[in-house]
Write a structure and sequence with these properties.
SH3 type barrels, 11 helices, 5-stranded antiparallel β-sheet, Cytochrome Bc1 Complex, Chain D, domain 2, 37% helix, binds heme C, 262 residues, alpha+beta, 3 domains
């Protein structure tokens, strides 16, 4: 009790941002095991999950832009406490936000996440080795970096199996424009002579703009020297819809899902 009272005093003295970690008593006092695991807790957790998590992790936890949670093997920690802390604090630089609810509600979500199991018929069926060969044949490495080699026009994929679900991976390949990564926005700089340079935006301020062009070269322009900057809302990644049949797509998705460097 003394420790909690002291935390209360601290809370009053600190600015709002510094107070944040103190808001969860269970995080503070190091509660390890989930105190809320009854069937009712799981049911409440399911509702909270539907409103706060399913947009990224899919309606049954099968994943979308966020990873599949039904595998019960988690990169950022398997314990109840680790899952609780990931919900409370988010995971920096990954797109996993901090979702602030009461301690009890967060534990109820943990109980629901723990109950998730993928139906057997949803098991991944693709051949990852065949997928690796397809990745090479279609020259995905021109734009993507995997395990020490590749280009930088698109996001690095070395750990993509952890962070994205098969559903999202498949969509990324057949419909790249559907969900464009913020750090990989396309820009088209038109020079004073009308010649365009297309690439991914790296930096921009009032006077200049830097991009990585399609050949992977760093290009820098003074805004006073150029005619126009266009920002097409389409991905730089070509769509592979129609260029891969279903088994090939399954194989490629299985290969990408297997990329789980620690
Ligand atoms: C805006 C999208 C988004 C929302 C909303 C979201 N997540 Fe996430 N979550 C992600 C992403 C992306 C990751 C992948 C982190 C990485 O790259 O390893 C992730 C990771 C996780 C992980 C860690 C997985 C692992 O392998 O360790 C857990 C657990 C998790 N989320 C649970 C939740 C829960 C529960 C909620 C709702 C309270 C939630 N997430 C809301 C996007 C989201
Ligand atoms: C001309 C460059 C280019 C080529 C070739 C290319 N990509 Fe991409 N890729 C991108 C860019 C840029 C993005 C990010 C913008 C977006 O999300 O569409 C991206 C996004 C992705 C994503 C989503 C990553 C995430 O974090 O969600 C996946 C998966 C992917 N590519 C796989 C592939 C595969 C597999 C191939 C080969 C079949 C391929 N790419 C070929 C440029 C490319």
């Amino acid at each position: 009790m003394v420790a909690l009272a002291a935390a209360g005093v601290l809370t009053a003295a600190l600015p709002a941002a510094a107070q944040r970690p103190l808001a969860s008593i269970d995080a503070q006092t190091g509660v390890d095991a989930n105190p809320y695991t009854s069937d009712e807790d799981v049911a409440v957790g399911e509702e909270l999950y539907a409103s706060r998590c399913s947009v990224c992790h899919g309606p049954e936890g099968r994943g979308d832009r966020g990873p599949d949670l039904t595998r019960q093997v988690y990169r950022h920690g398997n314990s109840d406490r680790a899952i609780f802390m990931n919900i409370l604090s988010g995971i920096p630089n990954t797109g996993m936000p901090s979702v602030r609810l009461s301690d009890k509600e967060m534990w109820q979500i943990v109980a629901y996440v723990r109950s998730l199991r993928a139906p057997a018929e949803m098991a991944e069926t693709g051949d990852a080795d065949a997928g690796r060969a397809l990745y090479a044949r279609h020259d995905c490495g021109r734009c993507h970096f995997v395990d020490g080699e590749g280009g930088r026009l698109g996001p690095e994929l070395s750990t993509i199996g952890w962070s994205r679900s098969p559903v999202h991976l498949r969509a990324s390949i057949v419909d790249p424009g559907g969900d464009i990564e913020d750090d990989y926005r396309q820009v088209r700089v038109v020079g004073a002579d009308g010649s365009p340079t297309v690439g991914v935006l790296l930096n921009e301020d009032s006077y200049s703009i830097q991009l990585l062009d399609m050949a992977g070269r760093l290009r820098s322009f003074m805004k006073s020297d150029i005619d126009e900057i266009e920002r097409p809302q389409v991905s730089l990644m070509p769509s592979f819809a129609g260029r891969l049949d279903d088994p090939e797509l399954d194989a490629l998705v299985a290969y990408l899902s297997s990329l789980r460097r620690r």
